[in-house]
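thoughts on my protein:
***
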Amino acid sequence: TMSLKQPQGQKLLTNVSVVRLKKNGGKFEIAAYPNMVMAWRNGVEKDVSEVLQIDRVYKDVEKGEYAKTKDLEKAFGTTNQEAICLEILRTGELQLSEKERSAQQEALMKEICTIIAEKCIHSQSRRPVTVGVIERALAELHFNASTSKQAKKQALEAIKLLEGKYPIERAPMRLRMTFPPSEREEVEEKLRRLGVTVEAADVRNEVLVLLCEIHPEKFRDCDSLVREHQGGGASIEILQLTVQNQEEEELKLSSSLSAVKVDEPKAAQAGGGGGGGAAAAAAAAAAA
């Protein structure tokens, strides 16, 4: 808890979260209510008056020292306090106590590991991997989460690290694609070049139906292929966002990681038709 003395007899500020921005050689701060900065950034809180304790820009919140007008003009090109406060709120660094920083880091790591567990499988058994296994593997790799980067982006980066050291890999997606039968040879050749596994192929009611298992990164390529043949009635449908063997078993990632039981997977289902509709767009986002 911080207790701040304000100049010119202003009201004492208590329980303050400080957001700091360094710009054009100057340091600028705003005083916000605890826990409200992240709520505002995440879109939970819309009213900025519930976030900022005062619409003034400080040079040093703790000392109660306001930023000089000439410094604001030099750094921001304006002296509009409200506009500058919003910029600092959007892009500044939230100053946290050691306890707050530790809690935030722990929550972020848990979120990253949960995303990885949802997207990955054990490369040999094809079964899901627990969040606990991921946490311990990343600890062994000395992976440090950054609070300035999105959890999903960091999860994808971490997956690449894990794939090089442990039997963990991205779970494949399962798609059903349809094409005119006359285009079968051309389509199957393009899929082979993409490295897509065709699990089954059949012609039904004069429509070529392909059941494929793909790496998530190949989804956009498959969607583009369907779009190329859309004039002939081609379509794409996502049957499973993650293909996992659902039986439980003991998994061991390395000799340094003790065996742990895998989680029951959370089956992610999505359906889509007609070459890149809303479902295809959603799947592309999920595959990213």
In short: The radius of gyration is 26 Å. The chain has a mean pLDDT of 81. The longest helix spans residues 98-119.
